Amino acid sequence: MEFKDMVVVVAGGAGGIGANIAQGFAREGGITIILDSAEEEAQRVAREIESGGGKASVVVIDATKEEKVQDAIAGIAEKFGGIDVLVNSIGWNKVLPFMETPESIWYRSVELNLMVTVRLCKAVLPYMINQKFGRIINISSQQGRRAAPQAAPYAASKAAVISVTKSLAALTAEHNIRVNAVCPGVVDAGLTKQFMKDSPQYIEEMLPQTPMRRICQPEEVASVVMFLASEKSSYMTGQSLSADGGTVML
Ligand SMILES: NC(=O)c1ccc[n+]([C@@H]2O[C@H](COP(=O)([O-])OP(=O)(O)OC[C@H]3O[C@@H](n4cnc5c(N)ncnc54)[C@H](O)[C@@H]3O)[C@@H](O)[C@H]2O)c1
């Protein structure tokens, strides 16, 4: 079991992608903590993990509140004796043409995609530095690597997540902490359902741009996240790996 007894915090672990990530780590022996504002969904994911023989706990907080994040992370570190892996899978998007996008949508996108990630990284790093071990994986997006005229605030905030990943990787490498990002394409998960409400033709428009001509399953994001948390990627930090069916080839 690759992550046996490692303490894994999955922020956004009640969501479509985050739940799969939490389940993946739990299957590999991780003690998974689902940190999310959606209590009912988080409890459901934890029950599923436990019914499969895995270990799971739930921490319900609104991650836009800095003090709550600090307290929650301190509580987890104290209860479980540290934090080994943090996965940042909280995210939000609103599809709107650029000229019709009010500033409030820009601020909310920056808050829920960038600042929540920054805040959680900042909260876990003292514990990871102290234990001289840590793995952080930030979920960015293919939209952070390309033009997204219908979702400019989302794309800009996801591009910023890639940038912060690099800065933190450089800052923390000497402490045996690795920080990487994953850039999924269109995933069969929560945010896509939201995109579809705003823009019903979204998948039809995206598929011709996707060489593999299908959308991504959440498990296909989880496996890349687990690779980046594992020793299989022991010489990788500051990287952003795409799981997008070949849409963006760097
Ligand atoms: N679904 C996609 O197609 C897709 C593609 C690329 C990247 N992503 C990224 O993957 C991540 C997960 O996406 P998803 O599709 O699973 O979305 P989702 O909406 O299913 O999951 C997001 C989770 O974050 C939680 N959350 C939101 N605001 C919060 C807050 N303030 N405090 C605590 N928790 C909060 C939600 O309750 C939810 O459980 C996001 O960062 C998203 O941007 C998704």
Beta-strand content estimate: 15-25%
Our measurement of the CA-to-CA distance between the termini, rounded to an integer number of angstroms, reads 33 Å
- Which structural class do you get from the secondary structure elements? alpha/beta
Specify the biggest β-sheet. 7 strands, parallel
Helix content: 40-55%
Question: Radius of gyration over alpha carbons?
Answer: 17 Å
Q: Which ligands occur here?
A: nicotinamide-adenine-dinucleotide
| Rounded mean pLDDT score | 96
Q: How many domains, in number, for the residues?
A: 1
Query: What is the number of beta strands?
Result: 7
Quick one: overall form?
A: globular
CATH class: Alpha Beta
For the record, what is the CATH homologous superfamily label? NAD(P)-binding Rossmann-like Domain
Output the number of helix runs: 8
**N-to-C series of helices and strands:** EHEHEHEHEHEHHHE
Q: Kindly report the spatial arrangement of strands forming the biggest sheet.
A: 3-2-1-4-5-6-7
Produce the secondary structure layout.
Blueprint: E1 7-11, H1 16-27, E2 31-36, H2 39-51, E3 55-60, H3 66-80, E4 85-88, H4 103-131, E5 134-139, H5 152-172, E6 177-184, H6 190-198, H7 202-206, H8 218-229, E7 240-243
Parallel strand pairs: 1-2, 1-4, 2-3, 4-5, 5-6, 6-7
Helix pairs in contact: 1-2, 1-8, 3-4, 4-5
The protein binds nicotinamide-adenine-dinucleotide.
Key terms for this structure?
250 residues; single chain; globular; binds nicotinamide-adenine-dinucleotide; alpha/beta
